[in-house]
Description:
This protein is an alpha+beta fold.
Amino acid sequence: MSQHLIKLSVGVKDVNHLARLQERRLADAEGLGKIPELKHVTRNTPKRAVEILKGGSIYWVIKGFIRARQPIIALRPVEREDGRPACAIVLKPGLIRTEIRSFRPFQGWRYFSIDDAPLDAPPYKEGQDDVPDEMAAELKGLGLL
């Protein structure tokens, strides 16, 4: 059985903003002659790595709501700039939008049960606007999201 992770996407306005940031990271790596891959470097290596690598995703919380996920394709030991060990969570490029669900703030990443994970949203059309946070909160409160 697979296991997911959940992570706050601090400073990100919406899913489109996160997508642009990730595209820029890939382009920057390619421009520097590095292998273009998306990775989130974290201090702690997940102890449930085997389960995560059996189809797990990282779910992104943006402004208090789970909005998207990305499949995790590798967990790799790396070294931070200060020489301390860390773990790179390597992500498949491209965000998969999910049903919007509110989620409380937390630090770092957390394990996220498959049973708790929101379903994927209907296909996203290029150029489509993201649901504004205030509207999402109101629709969620009305039971419409």
